[in-house]
Design a protein that fits this description.
Helices cover about 25% and strands about 35% of the residues. It has four helices and eight strands; from the N terminus they run βββαββαααβββ. It has about 170 residues and is of the alpha+beta class. The strands form two sheets. Strands 3-6-7-8-4-5 form a six-stranded antiparallel beta sheet, with helices on both faces. The protein has a two-stranded antiparallel sheet with strand order 1-2.
């Protein structure tokens, strides 16, 4: 059983059946807080890795955050930051890995769909909120709200994606 940050990770949630539904408005307080912070940063020229992340204002939320850098143009992506919640989801720390290696095999084309959505989110500079349910043999074992939006790379030359999942 792997140990990440001193905690045993008994299984990867990735192997479960996942259902996603886009929602108009977030319901989780942490989702709303993170989106408000992103909007405040956008009003000042954009949220930037290394300047606005990490910050004390969102420190309690960072365990649920994952940040992806496109490679080369959202054909794949590097995981540049993966909070502890991400390690629990995938069953290991995925920081620094290509996302295709993390999610291999790509069941049902979800990986390519993620990259298409990432390109759209960056191009439209918008936030996407989804209701996410994980099922094991038809039984719901996890329910989360997932928020995803673009951020700037440390130097500001490219746009990355921040995604965060909060338990409902």
């Amino acid at each position: 059983m792997p140990i990440v940050l001193g905690e045993h990770i008994d299984r990867s949630f990735y192997e479960l059946d996942h259902r996603f539904r886009v929602v108009d408005e977030p319901v989780h307080a942490s989702s709303r807080q993170l989106i408000a912070y992103w909007r405040a940063c956008e009003a000042k020229g954009g949220m930037r890795m290394g300047r606005d992340i990490p910050r004390r204002a969102i420190a309690p939320l960072l365990s649920q955050v994952m940040i992806l850098e496109p490679f080369p143009n959202w054909e794949d992506a590097y995981v540049r930051y993966a909070g502890f919640g991400t390690a629990k989801f995938f069953g290991r720390d995925v920081t620094g890995l290509l996302f295709s290696a993390v999610k291999a095999p790509d069941r049902g084309g979800t990986l390519q769909q993620l990259f298409v959505e990432a390109r759209d989110i960056v191009a439209e500079n918008r936030c996407l909120t989804r209701d996410h349910r994980a099922l094991n043999a038809g039984v719901e074992i996890a329910h989360q709200e997932v928020v995803t939006f673009p951020i700037c790379s440390p130097g500001g030359e490219s746009r990355w994606i921040l995604s965060a999942a909060f338990d409902l």
